[in-house]
Amino acid sequence: MKIKIKKKLKGRQGNFILDVNISAEDKSFITVFGKSGAGKTTILRAIAGLLQPDEGYIEISGNVWFDSSKKINLPPQKRKVGFVFQDYALFPNMSVEENVAFGMESRDKNFLQRILEITELTDLRSRTIDTLSGGQKQRVAVARAVARKPDILLLDEPLSALDYETRRNLQEELVKIHRAFDLTTVMVSHDFSEVFRLSDVVFVVDKGKIVKKGRPEDVFIQEKISGKVKFSGAVLSIKRDETVFIVSVLIGNNIIKVVADPEEVENLREGDSVIIATKAFSPFILKS
Amino acid sequence: MNKIIGKIKNIESSDNISLVEIETEIGNMCAVVVETPQTATYLKIGEEVYVLFKETEVSVGKNVSGMLSLRNKISCSVERIEKGRILTRLTLKCRGKLIRSIITTKSAEKMGITVGR
Question: Taking an 8 Å Cβ-Cβ cutoff, which residues of chain A contact chain B?
């Protein structure tokens, strides 16, 4: 897939130009990472045809969907896109199965069965949407998007409304679905650990520009460290204890304490994203 | 974290693990990593790398004789001592480079570590 778009945007801190160039191999799990207001969602909306770039080029699976120089602009219904929104956007009065089947171009019972199985919705197929939990609703939204057999699956902060545990389970499921249906997936997220866990390639967007791209481990780790044990987390507190500092770091839903030398914490602030790394020789492995 | 720049001089590998010799400003150092030249692009002779080691991993010896299994031994002088009740932070100097070590205050006192030694 090749995406090259320019679009003037109105942001909270004034106008800016979204000017991005995203290309990746088909079948990749691609994430667009950045703060809110950086222009991430606009990229997805442009791919889906819900918004027209001022200029640029969009090619998905070898088909040109948009090319401003040749005046090509496929309408949204001609673009094979599966779109999953943060707020699910499901039909509340329909059953799970009806919602999923709604996405299909032609009714294909076997395919429907397979989707429900992979998204673990088979047992919930007759339930109406308003009886489902947030995590279940989002699974239905993903299933409906996949049911269209899209050339590209677009996920707009799909897990941000969910609690930690559910988010974690759904992250694994997204990867499973991505692989099972051979999809090219573009996910927008500002959740560092999510991006780290899911993506093959990540594009970091800041004020409408791509500031970094590559494999998540290359993008997020400034220096290549040979230690294999790495976790990303957020600094909760930095406390001095005489000659050393005790840094509390939130990793997933665990808080760990790390002893640090004064020099190590010089540029560290509470709330910073950090990587905790240790050599592969040091950790104990205890069966839980 | 102590950080010293150097150049890879030699690499010996088993299936998954490599012993890497690095030429640095404070002498030759070596590191064992769970990588091989096949899995890590930076494992190349002549490649510029940083040797990183945590202050708490730096042991200090005085009048050392006999043999030790510690891989990297560097002669240093003590520049500064900051004593806490439990831990003592030593700033050590070797050929102009500073290395920090955190040891127990008990050890520091038992060894009689003083500035300039």
Answer: 223-228, 241-244, 259, 261-264, 279-281
